[in-house]
Amino acid sequence: MANTDTIEVRGPRSLDEMVSAIGAQTGETRKGAPVVRLSDTAVAIVGYDERDEYPYVVSIDSKSEVDVRRVDSLALFKRLQETPWALLLTSDDDDVEQLRPAL
Q: What do you get for the CA distance between the two ends of the chain, in Å?
């Protein structure tokens, strides 16, 4: 199973603006979505679906254990909280309820 946290975002004017808020794009893509390196073990994959209420989806993927990935995910989430955008943080892990107290 992939280790993935997800930040859904509503508010950026463009995919470039969303990617720039996360960091420098690596030039790599996954299924056409830009990839941004967050750490030695984690990347953010930035997707867009105009039909969704939160059209930008940032998937934080890592080969590390959940605790290590969660540090990267929460750091990015807190950085994005400085924007005026609406955000939702979710996870495919069983500990998803533990996200709330961490915020």
A: 25
Question: Residue 5 is inside which H or E element, if any?
Answer: strand 3-10
pLDDT in tens, 46-79: 999 999 999 999 999 887 766 677 888 999 999 9
103 Cβ contact partners less than 8 Å away, ≥ 6 residues apart: 74, 77, 89
Per-residue pLDDT of 76-100, as tens digits, reads: 999 999 999 999 998 876 555 444 4
Cα(30)–Cα(4) distance, integer angstroms: 14
Instruction: Considering only the C-alpha atoms of the chain, give the largest distance between any 2 of them, rounded to a whole number of Å.
Output: 35
